[in-house]
Specification:
The chain is mostly helical. It folds into two domains: 13-202, no CATH class; 214-316, no CATH class. Helix content is 48%, strand content 5%. The chain has 17 helices and four strands. The chain has helices at 22-31, 36-39, 44-56, 63-71, 74-81, 89-94, 103-113, 116-124, 130-138, 141-152, 161-170, 177-185, 190-202, 224-234, 238-247, 297-301, 313-316; strands at residues 214-215, 218-221, 252-256, 263-267. A four-stranded antiparallel β-sheet has the order 1-2-3-4. A hairpin with a 2-residue loop joins strand 1 and strand 2. Helix 3 crosses helix 7 (103-113). The protein is elongated, with a radius of gyration of 31 Å.
Length: 321
């Protein structure tokens, strides 16, 4: 006599918000089919409580445990699962997204709530995502408070934050990663910390391989401060046009120090540099013209922007084609 093959039902469309927890929840429902009705009245907070319990429960499930998990008092569930009731957990569960988080996020959340300072911070967060939880867990303790506030104020993108801080330290923004953490952790306000991060990024040295620091008598200008000073002294838009491009590594600006015809010449950071076809020259020691790279050079040679770049006398001595 052939044995009948028993197939377990698979989670359907309505179980999609449960994600990885869908199969364990379905097993709980199969253990006590009377609990299926509870599924239709389940709120988001209960859904995350179930997922948190499954993330911390190593043992086998039985009908009594299933009834407790799906319809029991939340405090009773926590007493069985954790043996305690972390402060702020109820509010945190109500701030989680509409779908179940990755399993590790629930374990990280409990660890974070064990820190009173971070628990207080999480209590005031309006929307608590899995990325935010993982980030706070990965962030060194001295930075957790200020970073969480910066994320909550939309001043900081959590994606790749720690990798970015390690990169800054490796490029010389601080003596070491730990020193950078201590430096940032000393700020009291998120806007101060993000402004300091922006300053560190602006001060990073440009990559050395290309383009070279010196081309003939011209030297490359890497400092945004120096570009601003030159633009102010020459009364042109050198900084406005090229400061962001230099900071982002999309352009390089070279400076000729000759007293007769001082000049700045921007170009793209390729080698040989793709510079303008002609060099624009100033008439005096205090002013100079700047030619952009590539196809836009002809517009500047025709003098359309001579009021903004270089001096006015450049229009009178407009070079030929």
């Amino acid at each position: 006599m052939a044995h009948a093959v028993v197939t377990r039902p698979l989670p359907g469309y309505l179980m999609a918000p449960f994600g990885w927890a869908a199969k364990p929840v379905l097993a709980l429902l199969e253990a006590d089919p009377s609990l299926y009705r509870a599924l239709f009245t389940l709120n988001r907070q209960r859904m995350h409580l179930i997922a948190l319990a499954l993330a911390h429960w190593p043992g086998e499930t039985d009908p009594s445990w299933a009834r407790l998990l799906l319809s029991g008092a939340p405090a009773a569930v926590l007493d069985v699962i954790l043996g305690r009731r972390p402060a702020g957990l109820k509010r945190a569960l109500g701030r989680l997204p509409v779908s179940v988080l990755p399993l590790e996020s629930y374990r990280h959340l409990i660890e974070l709530l064990d820190d009173p300072a971070v628990a207080k911070l999480i209590y005031h967060v309006e929307s608590l995502t899995g990325d935010c939880i993982c980030l706070l867990h990965d962030v060194p303790a001295p930075l957790r408070r200020i970073v969480a506030r910066a994320i909550d104020d939309s001043l900081l993108n959590p994606t790749g934050l720690m990798d970015g801080l390690r990169f800054l330290a490796s490029r010389g923004a601080a003596p070491s990663f730990d020193a950078l953490v201590a430096e940032l952790g000393a700020f009291r306000q998120p806007v101060q910390m993000t402004a300091h991060l922006a300053k560190l990024v602006r001060q990073l040295p440009l990559p050395e391989p290309i383009p070279p620091a010196v081309v003939g008598d011209a030297r490359r200008l890497d400092s945004g401060t120096e570009l601003r000073k030159l633009a102010k002294r020459w009364k042109n838009c050198l900084a406005g046009f090229y400061l962001d491009a230099v900071d982002n590594g999309r352009a390089a600006v070279y400076f000729w120090p000759h007293a007769e015809t001082p000049g700045g010449l921007p170009g793209r950071p390729s080698w040989p540099p793709r510079l303008g076809a002609r060099r624009c020259e100033g008439a005096g020691k205090r002013r100079a013209a700047a030619c952009p790279a590539g196809r836009n050079s002809s517009r500047f040679r025709r003098g359309r922007h001579s009021d903004r770049i270089g001096n006015r006398s450049a229009r009178k001595r407009r070079p030929g084609p």
